[in-house]
What we know:
By secondary structure, the chain is of the alpha/beta class. About 35% of the residues lie in helices and about 25% in strands. It has helices spanning about 5-20, 20-25, 45-60; strands spanning about 40-45, 60-70, 80, 80-85. Strands 1-2-4-3 form a 4-stranded mixed β-sheet. A hairpin with a 1-residue loop joins strand 3 (about 80) and strand 4. It is elongated and about 55 Å long. The chain starts with a helix and ends with a strand.
Amino acid sequence: MTKPERVLLEKLFRDAIDMVLPSRCVAPYLPDAAAGNTVVIGAGKAAAAMAKTTAEHYGDAVRGLVITRYGHGLGLNRTGGVEIVEAGH
């Protein structure tokens, strides 16, 4: 593989990852906050990132728990009112 081909493939890979980040593909679909708290419950590798996006959108009105794979907790144990737990099977 030539250097220009490698550079192009790496750019395409980074662009593809950027397109599926929760901040890009979840945030636009979150409705306006309802009265009271919004509860977030999640599991999976992307759960922490989606919870973070949701907490940033709703602020203090969000509460919940997400469980994600070890190494996918974004270095957080809490984002807003959402607890983030890293675990295995």
